[in-house]
Amino acid sequence: MIYLDHAATTPIAKEVLEKMYPYFSEHFANPSSQIHPAGRTAKAAIDKSLKSLATSFGVDESELMWTSGATQSCNWAIRGVWKHYSIKRKKIMLSTIEHSAVIETAKYLEREEGAELIWIPVTEDGEVDIDFIAQHINEKVLLIAVMAANNLTGVKQDLKKIGELAKENEVFFFCDATQLIATEDIKPKDLGIDLMAMSAHKFYGPKGIGLLYASRRNPRVNLPNWEYGGGMEIWKKGGTLDTPSIVGMAEALNWVRKQDWERVKVMRDELEDHLKSLGAVILGEKVDRIVNASNISFPGISNKRILQDLQQEIAFSLASACSSQNPGPSHVLTAMRLDEKTINGSFRLSWGLGNSREELEKVKQLFTMQIEKLKN
Ligand code: PLP
Questions:
Q1: The whole model's pTM is what?
Q2: Looking at residue 230, what is its pLDDT?
């Protein structure tokens, strides 16, 4: 099986797993048990990991909060800002192509708490409409949510420009950076991002652990506790911390930064060229995209049919993993106003560091056979 679904999740890197092992067994003590050396060893590993992550993102350790992944980070950021700051400002601006973790949270606030949502449109290439933001952002807007890179197309957004508009209007800027972090460095403070979500399993770390960044200066974003219990004074989140996963997340970020993504980009581009020669269109091809993602369509050829025939040999998706249970066209592709034939022919291939040139050749061959068969 050739795995081309790294936007859904990545494997844990071997080097990362090795660093995690001792914290499952040998150094298993509760990091809150500061009374004995075993607990202090676990706490030291957590402190070291937090410091390393904070340094990578150019933020202070006190600005990072552990979560169970990007979904919880998105929920905490949006619901938290709403809870503490929505007395005067009731509007939330969000792009039409956000992940469901953002969209459903915003819709919940609209339904239950009186938030007014302003949907930011995107171009046919999947870039958010910056002019629309400039025209609609004002002193009534509380928060703007725009993701760093889309999970379906890989298209990146002009975060710096959005950050500037947010600052000028004193609007909180929340960025879901989940899909960008594997392949690119990001420093939220340089981009005017006040809150940022991420998940370790998208960059060769373990599942079930993420971070939320919330700025403590310029502006100070004071979020409510996510829950109540032990450990609240530091983490605003209760419960025993998961030392192996935390160690794994920090190791994964250090590891992934040292990898050769250019090699992956070359393979991604080569396959795109090959598929174009068979009649494919590449969504978002003209604009800036992360290096490992492709959204491809053979207009007029059913993506379901392609998947059905190739799924034993290549693991890939039609929409995002979180919505593959949801039949019907993806909200991202409809927001891009693509025609029905292009939408129904579209699928996502997302490359990873473990993919080889042999696999590339095999994928080319499989698609050639499949497309020729379906064309006839
Ligand atoms: N945001 C984006 C852009 C994603 O791609 C995903 C996962 O697919 C999430 C949020 C949710 O991440 P998690 O499943 O780790 O909570």
A1: 0.97
A2: 75
